[in-house]
From TrEMBL:
Mg(2+) binds at S72, T91. It comes from Strigamia maritima. InterPro entries: Arf-like_GTPase, P-loop_NTPase, Small_GTP-bd, Small_GTPase_ARF/SAR. Keywords: GTP-binding, Magnesium, Membrane, Metal-binding, Nucleotide-binding, Transmembrane, Transmembrane helix. PANTHER family: ADP RIBOSYLATION FACTOR LIKE GTPASE 10 (PTHR46724:SF1), ADP-RIBOSYLATION FACTOR-LIKE PROTEIN 9-RELATED (PTHR46724). The chain crosses the membrane at residues 12-35. GTP binds at G65, L66, D67, G68, V69, G70, K71, S72, G113, N169, K170, Q171, D172. This is ADP-ribosylation factor-like protein 3. Signal peptide: none annotated.
């Protein structure tokens, strides 16, 4: 597997080698294969003249947030009308899924939100077209921590001009914080619209119920933002 590393960017090698046991197994192998395919293009697909083969356009969306806020549940239920899944295990390391729309592959990268994995968030920011930041609306005690992590992200030059979608998740729980309260907690009004296009949306994913309208709106907005930059 490590013979594949010769063509990867330095930050990929850093994550794989320095990260030790953090990003391992299937997830690590998936990242290796992803970059190997991007490097090789279509040269192994049997085409005689690979220079004439056009790769499918791609956009990169990165989904971040503290652990337990519902990132994995959100991604697992994209494009689902019913049979909503709500028993998703937290992501260890990272997870990649792709949604094809408008002839473009929207590659959605979810990075684990536990402290161990947050240390590696910066390694995944390059070439991001849209950022989705998920917040638990029912956990006001951790909002300061979410704000600290959010500040680090928007201060990173690699996210310059990247549109940001903030999802106020778990809106179905009584007495949860409103979108306005989440907006205030993250101090979003202090961010110039010239630097980032930002939108806050409510999100509700209920167990054993048809897809809530907020999930579809969040998905559509995420895809729209991926084409904004």
């Amino acid at each position: 597997m490590f013979s594949l590393m010769r063509n990867f960017p330095p930050w990929i090698k850093t994550v794989l080698v320095v990260g030790g046991g953090v990003l391992i197994g299937i997830s690590t192998y998936g990242l290796l294969i992803y970059y190997e395919r991007r490097h090789q293009g279509f040269q192994d697909e049997g085409f005689e003249d690979t220079s004439k083969v056009e790769e499918q356009p791609e956009r990169k969306v990165i989904v971040l947030g503290l652990d337990g806020v519902g990132k994995s549940t959100f991604i697992a239920n994209l494009s689902k009308v019913d049979n909503v899944q709500n028993d998703i295990k937290p992501t260890e390391g990272f997870h990649i899924m792709s949604v094809n729309t408008q002839g473009t592959a929207i590659n959605i990268w979810e990075i684990g939100g536990a402290e161990t994995y947050r240390n590696y968030w910066g390694n995944f920011l390059q070439d991001t077209d849209a950022l989705v930041f998920v917040v638990d609306s029912n956990d006001s005690k951790r909002l300061p921590q979410a704000y600290d992590e959010f500040k680090k992200l928007i201060a990173d030059d690699r996210l310059k001009d990247v549109p940001i979608l903030v999802l106020a998740n778990k809106q179905d729980i009584p007495e949860c914080l409103s979108c306005k309260q989440i907006e205030d907690a993250l101090n979003l009004k202090s961010i110039s619209p010239k630097l980032h296009k930002i939108k806050v949306l409510p999100l509700q994913i209920s167990t054993n119920k048809p897809q809530h309208q907020s999930l579809k709106i969040a998905e559509d907005t995420m895809i729209q933002f991926a084409f904004t930059k």
